[in-house]
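FAQ

Q: What does a record look like?
A: Structure on top, sequence underneath. For example:
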């Protein structure tokens, strides 16, 4: 398979949109019928009516795995608690309040460049190594914000996707939700690679969201120089996992 040739933004975005629209949850809830993993890390996918509750389950998983790998960081713990207790109920809870509704969609769960390839000869697009869940479709794109992305970082992929699937309401909070969803892959990376800069990046993004949606004077301040969305910083992803 060929990993160097990026997929057509229009065709790829359409294919992902079709998966999200057709892959509906039989229970009508968020979660998955069997335990799924990313790398060696199991995920809590118990059925939830609330997307905020389901995402919180997923986030608690990677927080635990990250602490197991890198040790307890009091400042990060305080920020994570504020994120879970105040920010997520506000930022994701609003998706299912005041008459708003989101349909659980089948998301791939680990969609990035190293999991996408083309077959040699036929040039058929292949995606592999999923960590599926029925969730909010926008969670799919949290990884595309991360520092290790290459062509998926280009806005044309999301522009084509949004032709087929419109952003959830409130639309003006789409980027903040995307930042929130990127925290999950950042902490997953940190949990798999001791000392990874992803931990500090996730921490800074958490601080940003806390400052915006539920300020807490005891937390540190957001630093734009550590924000990939501001700096455009790129760092190659290491696929070597920690040994047991």
């Amino acid at each position: 398979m060929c990993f160097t040739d990026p997929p057509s933004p229009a065709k790829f975005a359409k294919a992902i949109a079709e998966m999200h629209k057709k892959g509906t949850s039989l229970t009508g809830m968020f979660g998955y019928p069997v335990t799924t993993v990313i790398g060696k890390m199991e995920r809590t996918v118990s059925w939830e009516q609330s997307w905020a509750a389901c995402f919180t389950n997923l986030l608690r998983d990677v927080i635990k795995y990250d602490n197991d790998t890198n040790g307890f960081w009091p400042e990060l713990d305080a920020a994570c608690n504020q994120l879970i207790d105040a920010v997520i109920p506000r930022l994701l809870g609003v998706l299912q309040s005041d008459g708003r509704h989101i349909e659980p969609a089948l998301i791939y769960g680990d969609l990035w460049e190293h999991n996408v390839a083309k077959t040699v000869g036929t040039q058929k697009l292949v995606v592999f190594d999923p960590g599926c869940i029925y969730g909010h479709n926008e969670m799919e794109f949290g990884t595309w914000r991360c520092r290790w992305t290459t062509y998926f970082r280009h806005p044309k992929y999301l522009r084509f996707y949004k032709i087929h699937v419109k952003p959830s309401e409130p639309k003006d909070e789409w980027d903040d939700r995307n930042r929130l969803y990127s925290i999950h892959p950042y902490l997953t990376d940190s949990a798999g690679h001791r000392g990874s800069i992803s931990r500090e990046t996730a921490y800074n993004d958490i601080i940003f969201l806390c400052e915006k949606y539920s300020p807490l004077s005891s937390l540190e301040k957001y630093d734009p120089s550590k924000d990939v969305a501001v700096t455009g910083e790129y760092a190659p992803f290491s696929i070597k996992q920690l040994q047991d």
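Q: Is there anything notable about this one?
A: The mean pLDDT is 93.
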